[in-house]
């Protein structure tokens, strides 16, 4: 049985031997072949989808969180804290509960639909709504981390990114590559309204339908650029419209339901294919970061309304041309 | 890599050799140790949780749907149909999309929040809202199945239950039991407002917070009774209140977020333990059928409101007693 990413890849993670893994069985997510979508975007190679929405809290964040929380728990810390309204708070609260630790989530007042917090609330996190914006919430988090025995689990926690790299290990393992001898090309795509790396400057008020990547000043900015440069990759932007087209392709073309942010990878691949930027001999993996159930409203909004009919088979046969 | 339940267990499924699996990598879900919850309910044995919410469409239904849709696709059928507002329509629509088939979902008019259909809609299902109740929707489905080249994927489809049994195979495999020589005791728990097997009669208007098991006349009634009788098991009811207590225990005690129906198994175990009906040497597996994200409203409803505070660390330290 799969033991979670720490015990599967412990020798490649900065975790001391005695540290016990706080795990919910994260990782080991499906790598799904996507021939129909490949056709649709005019890509002649092999396209695979790494479906990270099937992690315990329905996003890739669990890979990093298991490492961050395990280390925090081993250090004797009793509480973790983050400023987040989405996937980070969901994952942080779940793993804190698993470890028997408290979780504190700081959110900006009045801007958050309670539904977005359903996971953090369910996992028993203490949610504090402050009279300030996200930057101020982050400042409060930083100060609390300095003054109290709490560990921050936002992306600035260095163990997060260490755990997240295990998705790449799994992809190589499943493709039969193990330890690879050539470097895969890393391509990153930001939403056009939240694309600081593409523009080379902080975006003060990022806006995009892809809420999980609505970030104006990413914590791993420099390392993302380094990954791009060292691998001959690119970091470009895709519009919300392109993201939503890819989002629908995945759900209705392959049966893979993701949150909009996840579709940025396919939207980007489509753009690169259109520009002739990729060989038909290539194997491409699109990482799909979160499950579509994270954002049911977008699915409903992007779909046609139900058809109304009498409770009569003949009428329905006629209406649907069956 | 895990190949989905058909190719992992093909020799134990009624699937002909030539039938290609329509799969999204379902199955292979975590079996999570739950020592904290075991303590909380006073169970001294080993408690494990089979976390079926980590299937592709976030419920156990995918196990049966991969079999039903694979067989339908191999037969040359071009559309599947169901009457469902929840997990069945989500799973049916996803696997139909994966197979390149049409999916039709018949729902009773005016009783369904559109959010509950977000998955079916995202996967491109045609949703027809009829002026009638659920029974009439099911009648329309049956008639359409008779008159057109469509396959029903409600529970009356016999391939569904065949696929669903693979959860038991996985549990035995992971516990190192393989093909078991003794029969596990099967315990089933229905919600008190939707407990036809417990009462021995159809429930006309079933009611429970656990919407996924709000069923008054289950398709597998007789086989459920047979499983109970042949294994020395029980089928009892648990109240909505008991379900919600178990629901919170799982999320805040172990970090495992489920939809309310899933918590019926733990609520039942707790009741059995209270009555002294289980030995402390036992290994018990609770099947958790669906992910908590299927029903975010219940999580929000069952949790305290966020605390309001100024954007000031000192105030928050005082408020939270950090």
Name a few traits of the molecule.
homodimer; 322 residues; alpha/beta; three-stranded mixed sheet; 14 helices; globular
Describe the structure.
Two copies of one chain form a homodimer. Chain A is an alpha/beta fold and 322 residues long. Chain A has 14 helices and ten strands. The first copy, chain A, has helices at residues 5-9, 35-40, 61-74, 87-99, 118-122, 134-147, 158-164, 166-174, 196-199, 221-230, 240-254, 264-274, 296-301, 313-320; strands at residues 31-33, 46-51, 79-83, 102-108, 126-130, 150-152, 187-191, 234-238, 283-288, 307-309. In chain A, the strands form three sheets. A four-stranded parallel β-sheet of chain A has the order 5-4-3-6, with helices on both faces. In chain A, strands 1-2-9 form a three-stranded mixed β-sheet. In chain A, helix 4 (87-99) links the parallel strand 3 and strand 4. In chain A, helix 3 runs parallel beside helix 4, helix 3 (61-74) packs across helix 7 and helix 11 packs across helix 12 (264-274). The longest helix of chain A has 15 residues, at 240-254. The radius of gyration of chain A is 21 Å and the shape is globular. The first copy, chain A, starts with a helix and ends with a helix. The mean pLDDT of chain A is 96.
């Amino acid at each position: 049985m799969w033991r979670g990413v720490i015990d599967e890849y412990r020798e490649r993670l900065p975790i001391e031997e005695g540290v016990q893994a706080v795990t919910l069985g994260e990782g080991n997510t499906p790598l799904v072949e996507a021939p129909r979508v490949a056709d649709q975007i005019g890509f002649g190679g092999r396209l695979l989808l790494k479906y990270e929405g099937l992690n315990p809290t329905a996003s890739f964040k669990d890979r990093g969180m298991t490492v961050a929380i395990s280390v925090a728990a081993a250090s004797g810390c009793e509480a973790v804290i983050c400023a987040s309204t989405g996937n980070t708070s969901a994952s942080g609260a779940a793993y804190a509960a698993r470890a028997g630790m408290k979780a504190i989530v700081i959110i900006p007042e009045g801007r958050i639909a309670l539904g977005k917090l359903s996971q953090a609330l369910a996992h028993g996190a203490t949610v504090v709504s402050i009279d300030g914006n996200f930057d101020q919430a982050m400042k409060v988090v930083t100060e609390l981390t300095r003054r109290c025995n709490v560990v921050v689990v936002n992306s600035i926690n260095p163990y997060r990114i260490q755990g997240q790299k295990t998705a790449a290990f799994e992809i190589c393992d499943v493709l039969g590559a193990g330890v690879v001898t050539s470097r895969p090309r890393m391509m990153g795509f930001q939403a056009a309204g939240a694309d600081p790396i593409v523009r080379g400057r902080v975006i003060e008020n990022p806006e995009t339908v892809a809420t999980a990547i609505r970030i104006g000043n990413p914590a791993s900015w420099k390392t993302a650029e380094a990954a791009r440069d060292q691998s001959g990759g690119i970091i470009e932007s895709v519009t919300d419209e392109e993201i939503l087209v890819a989002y629908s392709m995945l759900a209705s073309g392959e049966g893979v339901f993701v949150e909009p942010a996840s579709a940025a990878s396919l939207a980007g691949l489509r753009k690169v294919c259109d520009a002739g930027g990729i060989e038909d001999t290539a194997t491409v993996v699109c990482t799909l970061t979160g499950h579509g159930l994270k954002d049911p409203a977008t699915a409903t909004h992007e779909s046609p309304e139900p058809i109304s009919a009498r409770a009569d088979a003949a009428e329905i046969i006629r209406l649907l041309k069956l």
